[in-house]
Each structure stands twice: as structure tokens, then as C-alpha cells.
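Late entry, evening session. Most of the bench is empty. Finally got around to the prediction I had been postponing all week. Sequence below, unchanged from the version circulated by S.P.
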Amino acid sequence: MKRKILAVACSLTLLVAVSACKKKQEQPAPQTGVPGQQQPLPPGHPAMNQPGPGGVVMPKGETTISLPDAVKGKWKAVVLVVEDKASKKKSEFTVNLNSDLKIPNSDLKVTVGDFLPDFKMDGLAITSTTNDPNNPAVKVVVFEKDKEVFKGWLYSKFPTIHPFEHPKFGLMLKSGVKKG
């Protein structure tokens, strides 16, 4: 009887030891950020899915863009970088503000709106805190075959924040172009 108990105890000990030595496969933690986000958020920008400054949830409604006098009329264009994802070729285009860019060899058209050299968003109000290019951003609307496929801001220092996503083309803001 003692031998049977000893044999069972040894077997259980061996079984526990063998199973404890096996390498456990850990599941990767699910991503909670923006796909491809590799850079920190710009100053004053709340974390994704988090309340804004002071714990305030972003209000619903229409955003307003206010161009301060220090910025109005000081910028004439932006430099956009278009990447052909298949060939990995990047091309730069200087596009006047409030005008369109037809992306060559595609059905895409980019409508360029306001440029803010020092983008800041506070609730529903968007403005530029200075005329210095501290956080350059441009408002764009992208159409594919006359259908709107993207409407938002492109940031030159934070290109992965709310990026234009398309299977064949990438679109980024390189810089603003001052008048004069």
C-alpha cells in the first residue's frame, strides 16, 4: 500500500514539475491606440478615448476655426507629400490654400483648406496660438471619384494622429509656405 501511495505521489510530483517547466505562451495585449501610432500626442491633445483637459468630455457640435490676425494672410500654400504605397515612391506637391490637388495616376482629389502654423484645439474651437510653425496642421478633404473619403487635419510633426488611410496612397503634410 505504501508503495502505491509513494508511486502516485512521485507521479503527481513529476507531472507538476513537467507542466511547470513548459514555456507559457502569453497572449499579446490588445492595442488601444491608433494603428501605427508611434509618436506622442501633440501638446493639449487629449489621449485617445479619454476626456479632454480638466476631465471634460469633448462636447458634441460643430467645430469652429478661428484664424488670429497674426496668422491671417501670412501663409499662401502647403507642401503635401503623397506616397504611392505600391512603388514606395514619395512625391511633393506645393498646393495653394483653398485650392485642389489632383493626385496623378489616381481618382483622388485633395481640397486644401486652412493652415494653422501652431494648431490648438480647445473644445470645439480650433485656432493657432502663434504664427510660428510649432504644431503645423492643414485641414483637408479627400475625394475619390467625387465621393468624400476623408475629412480632417494633417499634422506635420504628428503624421500618425488621425492619418489619411487609403490602400494605395499615403498623404502627409510636410510644411507651410509663407507669403512673400
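Two things to note before I forget:
Strands lie at 64-66, 75-84, 89-96, 99-102, 108-116, 119-122, 125-128, 137-144, 147-155, 169-178.
The longest strand covers residues 75-84.
Will write this up properly tomorrow.
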